[in-house]
Structures
1.
Amino acid sequence: MLKTLLPRTFKKPLSPSIKRLYSTPPEPLKKKVYSRIPLNSEPLKNPSKEYKKQGPDFEFATWKGLVLTGVVGAGVYVYFKHEKKRIQTQKEADSNRGVNKNSGYGKPLIGGPFELIDTNGNVFTQKDLEGKWSLVYFGFTHCPDICPEELDQLGEWLNILSSKGYTNMQPIFITCDPNRDTPEVIKDYLEEFHEGIVGLTGTHEQVKHVCKQYRVYFSTPKDVPKGQDYLVDHSIFFYLMDPQGEFVQALGRQYDGPAGAAKIMDHIDAYNEDVENGDLLAAKNKRWFDKSVLEK
């Protein structure tokens, strides 16, 4: 009976599921490729070359934008840094001279009217400070070391300022020892230093008065026999005065070489910008206002 069943079993047709299991698998379905070509336009003849041709233009535009952004950002940074420095410098100058811009009131703490004579015998007053930037130093010709060092420092500043175009400067030497420092003595003494330094002297009372105006301390020994040498104690500062003859800053020995010249240029730049912008309190209240003398 088994023999009769087996042939009949294998002769029976295979079911569809069996056929699919043992037959060769069909090819995978291919995705339909959609065209990227816009309507009413012609396809590219050589797409790879065309896209390569367009690539560098896009890359250049990107770098150009980055460079432009960097340049603009750097410009804004430099501007605000400069403006911050200018405002700080102006505040420092206003604070030194005792000016309150918000209230419009203030009184100079240093400086004021005085009358002396120069090495040619001409009268020199506070009015002669107007129209130029002045560097005022108090000393005496018999000073063994400090005064010569400070006057050499003054010469270095003037050379740096001149090389940068800041030529509207007036260096001034005022003696604290009028008994020995006559106009002739001062004139000979200043020949050893930077040319253009204005030497000033006067009577003991005149010198005492100008030292008081500039808050300069000085003292000479009493009852010194005639002809005997002596030293004079005095303050060691350069007083920077603006073209209106008003005090800006006292420069001490910490401002040596380029540092002192840079500080002076900062004040000049800040002052000139304020005048050009009409932002000085002096524009309506101060007596001197002439842009022509503010040029470097």
2.
Amino acid sequence: MSGRRSLPALPEVPPGIDQRVASVLTPLKEVVEVREGLRGDPLARFATLADLVSLGLVSRDQALALVK
């Protein structure tokens, strides 16, 4: 696939944070990391429009038309 843009890492959920907040932040962090392909099954990550263009599945113009 295309060269993936480097994104800043999400920080760990800080210790001492309210448990109700932590119970939301922890799985949210995991979902983002899996979908970005940073952890877990590589086949579970999202494909970007740039990925589709680099594979020749859509043209750049077609991809850009999707976000207008």
3.
Amino acid sequence: MNWNRFLMQFMVFFSIYLGSTLLRVDFERRQLKTPNFIIKVYVIFECLSFVIYIPYTVLFTIQQVQVYVTNPVAKYANLLTLVMRLVIMYVYTLTLPRRDREIRQWFESILNIQSSYFDRLRDLPKNTGHRKWLYVNGCLTFVHLTTVVVDIQRSVFRRQYQKAIQLYPLLGMLGVQHLFMLQHASLLCYLRECLSQIHYQMLANYQDPKLSLIYSQLRQKIMQLNEIYSPSILCILLCLIISNSMVGYAIFMIFLVPRLNIHRYDYLFGDSFYLCVLLHMYLYFMICEWVMTSLKETQSILYEHINSGSEEVEEEIKKVSLSCCIYTAEINIFGMVPINLRALFSIIAQTVLYTTFLIQTEMENYRIKAN
């Protein structure tokens, strides 16, 4: 079975299901397909439903939470969490036309590179060790969102309409977080496979006059992905920091007050399947780290050929050096925030700090009430 084709088809149909993109990719024919009218109507309807319905659900949830949360700091943190969900859904919806247009241009260019260059290197090996983690991320996404949808349907059947209303913005936030991390990681892994072919090409001393041009174009494609996904990934990371802090606070409250009704915090994380998004976030940062490592390794093996004494190779290395100066090898957000393991540990540290602060204020609130 062609796992590349299976993965891309899964991504395409899952993206259409969530209304995140109108693009369809045919990797066998190296071309993009135009979706039919029904798919366009569905995607537009999905976006409009988020734009119209989520503000109401957020306002309704805020009113309900004010009854349960007594900690003033936690109230503001909860308000910020819900507002971030509103922001992330509006960013996702309003950037859809521009995002699809830019991704279409990106795919047209990369498919042209694939057909004109890499299709000639079918005999060369390539690094595919990341694919199993993409499959894991896809399973995490599908399982997590399916459980939330089932919870919403169960609440509707039981006529627990308030709970269903509270879970709807959670579903939208989780869908955007999962899917954008999965899409971005899939495209980065595809570029990593292309880089690995260049790496093995150089190890086999297979010279090609287009080598420096192709390497430069791959670095450029990474920069273009940074520009395309920066708004969405920035909102996702901010939302994860705030949401995870509130989740940590809610877990503490559940252990602190055993008789507390745990379902009052369903709007925050749903159930224990929330661990899926945390694991997905870790694997996403790991994949970004692997891609950056592959870039550096490929660059190092290219520079090793300088000592070969070949004037043609030296000319190629000069071109590669120029491309390295023009196109950065870093996966980042708006050219400022890198997406790597260091950034992940910083996010974890900030989350723990905010959670600790919420817990301290809660304990102080209990002490004041006790006195």
